Automatic annotation (TrEMBL):
<keyword id="KW-1133">Transmembrane helix</keyword>
<keyword id="KW-0297">G-protein coupled receptor</keyword>
<feature type="transmembrane region" description="Helical">
    <location>
        <begin position="271"/>
        <end position="290"/>
    </location>
</feature>
<dbReference type="Pfam" id="PF13853">
    <property type="entry name" value="7tm_4"/>
</dbReference>
<keyword id="KW-1003">Cell membrane</keyword>
<keyword id="KW-0472">Membrane</keyword>
<keyword id="KW-0552">Olfaction</keyword>
<dbReference type="InterPro" id="IPR000725">
    <property type="entry name" value="Olfact_rcpt"/>
</dbReference>
<keyword id="KW-0807">Transducer</keyword>
<comment type="function">
    <text>Odorant receptor.</text>
</comment>
<dbReference type="GO" id="GO:0004930">
    <property type="term" value="F:G protein-coupled receptor activity"/>
</dbReference>
<keyword id="KW-0812">Transmembrane</keyword>
<dbReference type="InterPro" id="IPR000276">
    <property type="entry name" value="GPCR_Rhodpsn"/>
</dbReference>
<feature type="transmembrane region" description="Helical">
    <location>
        <begin position="102"/>
        <end position="120"/>
    </location>
</feature>
<feature type="transmembrane region" description="Helical">
    <location>
        <begin position="232"/>
        <end position="251"/>
    </location>
</feature>
<feature type="transmembrane region" description="Helical">
    <location>
        <begin position="61"/>
        <end position="82"/>
    </location>
</feature>
<feature type="transmembrane region" description="Helical">
    <location>
        <begin position="132"/>
        <end position="154"/>
    </location>
</feature>
Length: 309
């Protein structure tokens, strides 16, 4: 009973990216630029893909889904950060905090599983070109995408429920600009051993796609090297290059942020977190549209249609 009372009125303080006022102002301006760019960039990708019948194929459906996840992902934390900065407030309710944490973990997982589905799709296209249309069917794509969303929820709900049942006594200062699980666990005065174990299990589930991506690329490169035609190599690089760029950006920053979660929070971690949360979703559409001829054509078509109508 007391616990329930506690959690309904509980407020947390988001200390910010670094906690230093000048740096907070800098990050505010940075986010003010990044957030609309992310929304517009990703929405354009989705619109372009859906309006161009020539690229209605699995690779672009996955890409559109990735853009959708990126839009949600940045909307979980950035608007709250911007609003708090404008209002001169640092507070967030316990419910808001858990909501942020829940969707952050869920969407990060979905993102990561969709990246794996994309790698698998490319690997089949390059290594089994003749069987591609029978292996990667519309049905299997829908299954992969639905599975990615499901894993996201399945790998975040337990953490959310476990964190919701913790007690928070003294300090309510979250050393970040959003509620992340590691900061919340550190603030709790309950026994968090089980929570930490579950968190590492969660990181494990989250990392499975990385293994799949590595295997897919080993498969791609072994195929390309076995048939060493310049054209084949170029084709492989042009279709995989963008994906590989996004994957390295994504996992590079995630590894930096997640693999030292309970250690002291430094400016370097703060910058890595910002990279991961704000920059990666913003850069995804650019990486894909600037390097990909079909994507560029689809965007051009989208714009010319708007202008002529
Ligand atoms: C996500 O993928 C599914 C299955 O490939 C597709 O039907 C759907 O349109 C995609 N979603 C978006 C937003 O493009």
């Amino acid at each position: 009973m007391r616990e329930e009372n506690q959690s309904s009125t509980l407020e947390f303080i988001l200390l910010g990216v670094t906690g230093q006022q000048e740096q907070e102002d800098f990050f505010f301006v940075l986010f003010l630029f990044i957030y609309p760019t992310t929304l517009i960039g990703n929405m354009l990708i989705i619109l372009a893909i859906h309006s161009d019948i020539r690229i209605h194929n699995p690779m672009y459906f996955f890409l559109a889904n990735l853009s959708l996840v990126d839009i949600f992902f940045s909307s979980v934390t950035i608007p709250k950060m911007l609003a708090n900065h404008l209002l001169g407030s640092k507070s967030i309710t316990f419910g808001g905090c858990l909501t942020q944490m829940h969707f952050m973990i869920a969407l990060a997982n979905t993102d990561s599983y969709i990246l794996a589905a994309m790698a698998y799709d490319r690997a089949v296209a390059i290594s089994r070109p003749l069987h591609y249309t029978t292996i990667v069917t519309l049905k299997s794509c829908v299954l992969l995408v639905a599975g990615s969303w499901m894993v996201g929820i399945a790998n975040s709900l337990p953490h959310t429920l476990l964190t919701a049942s913790l007690s928070f006594c003294g300090n309510h200062d979250v050393a970040n600009f959003y509620c992340d699980i590691a900061s919340l666990l550190k603030l709790s005065c309950s026994d968090i051993h089980f929570n930490v174990k579950m968190m590492y299990l969660g990181v494990g589930v989250f990392s499975v796609p990385l293994l799949c991506i590595i295997i897919s690329y080993v498969w791609v490169f072994s195929t390309v090297l076995r048939v060493p035609s310049t054209k084949g190599v170029l084709k492989a690089f042009s279709t995989c290059g963008s994906h590989l760029t996004v994957v390295s950006l994504y996992y590079g920053t995630v590894m930096g942020t997640y693999f030292c979660p309970l250690m002291k929070y430094s400016l370097k971690d703060a910058v890595l977190t910002v990279m991961y949360i704000a920059m990666t979703p913003m850069l995804n559409p650019f990486v894909y549209s600037l390097r990909n001829r079909d994507m560029k054509a689809a965007l051009r078509k989208l714009f010319s249609k708007r202008i002529s109508s």
